[in-house]
Design a protein that fits this description.
The chain has one domain (about 5-60). It is built from two helices and two strands. It has helices at about 15-25, 45-60; strands at about 5-10, 30-35. It is flat, with a radius of gyration of 12 Å.
Length: about 60
C-alpha cells in the first residue's frame, strides 16, 4: 500500500493549495497534516514540536521502528 503524506505550515497558503490540488489526483491512501501558525520552515515557536510526532509516526509505520 502506498501512502502519500505531507506536513505543511498553516500559514503557507501556496503550499497548502498545491498539496490539495495534487491530492485530488491521487487515488492512493493519503494524509495532509496542517500545522497551525507555521510557515514552510516551521521556524515559529512550538511548531517543530508539533511536526516531530507526525514524522515519527510516519517513519514507524512505513520504515519500521
Amino acid at each position: 500500500m502506498i501512502v502519500h503524506s505531507a506536513i505543511v505550515g498553516g500559514l503557507d497558503d501556496v503550499v497548502i493549495d498545491l498539496n490539495r490540488k495534487a491530492y485530488e489526483k491521487l487515488q492512493s491512501k493519503k494524509h495532509l497534516a496542517i500545522v497551525k501558525g507555521a510557515t514552510h520552515l516551521f521556524e515559529e515557536p512550538g511548531t517543530l514540536q508539533e511536526v516531530a510526532p507526525l514524522v515519527t509516526a510516519w517513519v514507524k509505520c512505513h520504515v519500521g521502528s
